[in-house]
Amino acid sequence: MGLNEWFNKGLTPEQYMETLDKHKEAFHHIYENFNIENDESFLNQLKDKNVRAVVLAEPWCGHCMLNIPVLLRLSEKTNMPVKFLLRDENLELMDQYLTNGKSRTIPIMIFINDNGEEIAKWGPISDKTKQFVDELKKDLPPKETEEYDAKFKELIAITGKEFKENANLWHGAYASIKETLSKI
């Protein structure tokens, strides 16, 4: 199946947001509070390119909660159609976009032209988010220890709170997506 067919099969942003459960409040908080300002030159250039996006995501994913509201604000400013495919129901496509050739980490944003050809790919996280998470992970005990599960749950709670509240992470995601799209 080509990327046009995957795009046509996808959920609209509204349909995707209806699937949200665990991260619904945080997702909407980011969506309502993230704004793109003073970037008209880039936004106009992107509008002229008629880009569409196919996004592999899941409603339970913290990285999706952080990055997708940013993409949706960008899509609104540029009239970029966006469709969502749930990763676990679309492994045939997901397995073509593995992180480091082995991991099904999401979100993956596949940007396509009018012909359905891939013109750019972004995901799963920005460098700013990776640095933040890596800094927290360095204090985790080894996986085989008794305290790992409890410490990992603490890490998830901290990252979820920061993803929701830290506008620097939102703007880091935007800058990273913008950098990718500036090259098309």
UniProtKB/TrEMBL annotation:
Q: Which InterPro entries match?
A: Thioredoxin-like_sf
Question: By what name is this protein known?
Answer: Thioredoxin
